[in-house]
Design brief:
Belongs to the BetVI family. This is Bet v I/Major latex protein domain-containing protein. It comes from Citrus sinensis. One of its GO terms (molecular function) is protein phosphatase inhibitor activity. It contains three helices and seven strands, in the order βααββββββα. It is α+β, with helices and mostly antiparallel strands. It has a single domain, classed as START domain (Alpha-D-Glucose-1,6-Bisphosphate, Chain A, domain 4), CATH 3.30.530. Strand 2 and strand 3 form a beta hairpin. It starts with a strand and ends in a 5-residue tail after the last helix.
Length: 161
């Protein structure tokens, strides 16, 4: 009945500055543009986009989610660190035993000029509940798909980011 912690890592041929812009600084506008069949829009509910801000991701009808909200916990452009917590959501993909999920992400350069994105994901259960890795694997696979779709967009549109 503790926190389930998973680590994810993706590599890219994009340089770290561009990958960070793609997945953090321009993510809210690019996500609905690249995946309009899934994401309707992203709203800034409160704040200026920095720590403490709340963002709401709205999905198209028929998607696994109706919406979810996340709070920005840390944004360090110089060190390419972005931490946030998924605090609310509604949809078929919602797992009733999860209270919230935190993400600690960092982008670093690789020797070949590309980059590596690492994310520590912590799933916090509701009191008395347990979260099993099998429950969250489908969501992690979808996140990998989003990574690849955005990366492909950036490679095909080098001036877009």
């Amino acid at each position: 009945m503790g926190v389930l912690t998973l680590n994810a890592e993706e590599t890219s041929t994009l340089p770290p500055e561009k990958l960070f812009k793609l997945f953090v600084l321009h993510f809210d506008t690019l996500l609905p543009k690249v995946l309009p069949q899934v994401v309707k829009n992203v709203e800034l509910i409160s704040g200026d986009g920095g720590p403490g801000s709340i963002k709401k991701f709205n999905f198209v009808e028929g998607a696994d989610w109706k919406y979810f909200k996340h709070r920005v916990d840390a944004l360090d452009k110089e060190n390419k660190i972005y931490n946030y917590t998924a605090i609310e959501g509604e949809g078929d993909a919602n797992i009733p035993t999860i209270d919230h999920v935190s993400y600690e992400s960092k982008v670093v350069g690789t020797p070949d000029g590309g980059s590596k994105s690492t994310v520590v994901i912590k799933f916090y259960p509701k009191p008395g509940a347990e979260i099993k890795e099998e429950q969250v694997k489908g969501g992690l696979e979808k996140e990998k798909g989003i990574f690849k779709a955005l990366e492909a967009y950036a490679l095909a549109n080098p001036n877009a980011v």
